[in-house]
Amino acid sequence: xxxxLVADDQELIRSGLRTVLEADGGFDLVGEASDGGSAVExxxxxxxxxxLVDIRMPLMDGIEATRAIAxxxxxxxxxxxxxxxxxxxxxxxxxxxxxxxxxxxxxTAQLVQGIRVVAEGAALLAPSLTKRLVERHLAPAATIESxxxxxxxxxxxxxxxxxxxxxxxxxxxxxxxxxEATVKTHVNHLLAKLRLRDRVQAVxxxxxxxxxxxxx
Length: 216
What we know:
Helix content is 51%, strand content 12%. It is of the alpha/beta class. It folds into two domains: 2-124, Response regulator (Rossmann fold); 134-208, Winged helix-like DNA-binding domain superfamily/Winged helix DNA-binding domain (Arc Repressor Mutant, subunit A), CATH 1.10.10.10. Strands 2-1-3-4-5 form a five-stranded parallel beta sheet, with helices on both faces.
């Protein structure tokens, strides 16, 4: 049973999510919040597996709430709820520690699957979409690479480059002529070495340190 908390200032949205989660049977809706501050307090107290957090909320917005949750309760994965797939705040939320985002308009099946994916520790964001967000919001990359990258093997660096360019594990496997399982192992190793939560943060780091250039 996946324990979920919902944070949205619209009762209609919270009601809809409540209906979906309760109908599935695989989720336990442990709490609801109508603002970011309440969301953080509930997450600290209830320790859900996943927190569905709206971007625009009163008192404390979803970005600040995400940052607080990531710092105080890192085991809780945050999924951002947004109306637009290129909402200007989505990138900020991802860098604050969110594991991805969901559109409020997506089909119920995708919502349910998305929550499960994040609960299992993966990032819910298409690599190509991550790249679009990075290129839209990230400042020009630095010319000096981060010292953190020096601990990666040549193959791990190559995998990181391909992730940042928008390739999935399967696509990387085809390009590097290795198995998908091998790629997954490389991804896990480089995330551990760089102390990153998921591939979303890996893409951001790759651009920030200059390993991959905007538009490259």
